[in-house]
Amino acid sequence: MSALCYKSGAEGKKKEELHQVIEWLTGYDEKQQQALIASKATFETFFQQATLNPNVHLIKGLICGYRVEEITNQLTQQVRWLNKLVDELAKGKKMEKIMRVN
């Protein structure tokens, strides 16, 4: 399983905001997220079973020194999308921007 690169954590953010961001990306509600955690699902399983948001192509920019839109390995790109969203949340970006609402 790939390790996520964190320059800053999600400390100080509400747990429900984190769950909301994960749900936006994957379609998993909080109950499903908890079940995946409890089952110790790998990133591969996590993303294979997910229904990715149709706007994931709007997630762009650098994370851990890589442009997420240029990553060619599908699983790595999906993990970095999640990493990017959590990083934006940790940096205090507005939820509307994180979830790419026009």
Descriptive account of the structure:
The chain is mainly alpha-helical. The chain contains 5 helices and 2 strands, in the order αααββαα. The chain has helices spanning 15-26, 30-38, 43-48, 74-90, 95-98, and strands at residues 62-63, 66-67. A two-stranded antiparallel sheet has the order 1-2. Helix 1 runs antiparallel to helix 4 (74-90).
Give a short overview.
With 102 residues, the protein is mainly alpha-helical.
Descriptive tags:
two-stranded antiparallel sheet, mainly alpha
Q: Indicate the radius of gyration in whole angstroms.
A: 13 Å
Query: What is the 3D form?
Result: globular
- Structure annotation, total helices: 5
Gap from first CA to last CA: 33 Å
The total of beta strands comes to: 2
Task: Output the helix-strand order.
Answer: HHHEEHH
Q: Give the low-pLDDT segments.
A: 1-8
Mean pLDDT: 88
Write the layout of secondary structure elements.
Layout: H1 15-26, H2 30-38, H3 43-48, E1 62-63, E2 66-67, H4 74-90, H5 95-98
Antiparallel strand pairs: 1-2
Helix pairs in contact: 1-4
